Every structure is written in C-alpha cells, then in structure tokens.
Amino acid sequence: MPSVAVRLDADMKARLEKLGKARDRSPHYLMKEAIEAYVHEQEAEDAIYETLMTRWKNYELTSESVAGEDVKMWIENLPGGDEAS
User: pLDDT per residue over 6-49, tens digit each?
Assistant: First the structure.
C-alpha cells in the first residue's frame, strides 16, 4: 500500500499521540480511521446530492411533484408515523 505523508503541527501530533495511548492505538491507526470515516461521509453526501439532482431534473422535465401536505399525510399513515409529530 502506498504511503501518504500528513504534516501536523506539534500540538496536533501530541494530542493524537495522547489519544492513541488512551485508546491503545497507534496515531497511524487513528488517522487511517478518521480518513476512512471522512471519505465514507463525503461519499454518502455525494450520493444524496446526486439523488436530489436526479429528482430535480425529473421535476424540470415533467413538472410532477408531491405537495408537502400529501407527504405529511403519507408519513403519518406509515406504521409508527404519528410518533414523529
């Protein structure tokens, strides 16, 4: 696996080392986990954005939409839907 260098200031490096000792993990492990979580979060946000853009393009083409009150009634009729109110 290729290496990647990350420059950290002294304070951040010390904090990372302290956290690693408290968790019985290496700073490398913590950085890798943080990067993986960040990439996963960004990919999820991108997927949501793509879904919204697809829906928007469909709306622009068809002008079909669902009224907010209809959505609210649909949610309320789902099992457990009235608990969200």
Answer: 999 999 999 999 999 999 999 999 999 999 999 999 999 999 99
CA-wise closest residue to 71 among 61, 58, 84, 59: 84
Six token digits for residue 72? 């609210």
DSSP reduced 3-state for 1 = coil
What is the spatial distance between Cα 71 and Cα 67, in angstroms, rounded to a whole number? 6
The shares of helix, strand and coil residues in the chain, as percent rounded to the nearest 5, are 75, 0, 25
Token code pair at residue 65:
């939409």
| One-letter amino acid of 43 | E
Name the residue ranges covered by the structural domains of the chain: 10-84
